[in-house]
């Protein structure tokens, strides 16, 4: 069986690695890996390949950055000839980035079956580019791998037939489980007893001057109570420069490799983020997470896990932070099938097809 995987951006890599490794152990499987090049910086891409032991891609489409339309179109036109040449039995796409939907569209047009890993997640907010990517990819996919029950429910409600849906659990947690021992040993661990770990990159939080300024001001207020560790995404750094915001009071770091970031996450007093994956990782690590968004496509992290949505409301952020600092943090539990074996379950289903 020939399985072709498409990855493009940082959050894809930790989802693809466990599937690639699980399939590598099976006989009769030939795998091809395509990197679209959506993320191309060493610290957003190469370093993840090496830490997650992902083999070098067979094809790099080198699409790079651009508007949504341009980036999606560039992936589509570069991927089409690769797919025609490789002739896989099935293509596996991951998550909700522009590369995901672009590859799924090409497969649908060339009648190549598509499997979507991390299917069924919905924020019900179409202003979020990833929500559009999720809906379209799931509509086109022939095999849908969901991380949790809410994913199944969303897909069934949208008319996807139950035979196509496979609840395999959270594959990103496989990478976490695998590299947690390395993170525990990691010298990047900080000396401080208490610190807030911050990440911020959603267009809705960083692309508007006033919104970004307000969020950064509330982070400065946080830094008056405990030290703030803030690895900054290139999109956010570019906006701060563009808007000329003074950030002297916040210490910025470069985006971090997976293991070093995991080492910080597990030791953080609180994580403040607008990332999707980090809401899940903190739930698994049982570290309090304050999400700077008014909705989430990962509601199980709120209902079962340690996640609280604070939106762009600095008052709510301050109240929740105080509760955490006073030892009244939300206690969560780990959702079912977030057990480090999702990649194996995906491999099993793919080979049964
Ligand atoms: C993308 C995903 C988002 C994911 C995020 C993780 C989409 C729609 N968004 O957002 O879901 O959470 O990745 O990081 O696919 N840039 C660099 N170097 C790079 C890549 C990007 O400097 O290697 C800069 C460029 O200025 C670029 C900007 O970051 O324009 C945004 O990159 P892009 O891939 O468009 O989206 P992300 O914000 O990274």
Strand order in the largest sheet:
3-2-1-4-5-6-7
* Rounded radius of gyration (Å): 20 Å
Give the CATH architecture of the largest domain.
3-Layer(aba) Sandwich
Which small-molecule ligands are present, each listed once? uridine-diphosphate-N-acetylglucosamine
Task: Report low-confidence residues grouped into runs of 5 or more.
Answer: none
Structural class, by secondary structure, is alpha/beta
The tally of structural domains comes to 2
CATH topology name of the largest domain, in short, is: Rossmann fold
Can you give the mean pLDDT? 97
Q: What is the name of the CATH superfamily of the largest domain?
A: Glycogen Phosphorylase B
Quick one: CATH class of the largest domain? Alpha Beta
DSSP, total strands? 13
Categorize the overall geometry.
Answer: globular
**Order of H and E elements:** EHEHEHEHEHEHEHEHHEHEHEHEHEHH
Instruction: Report how far the terminal alpha carbons are from each other.
Output: 10 Å
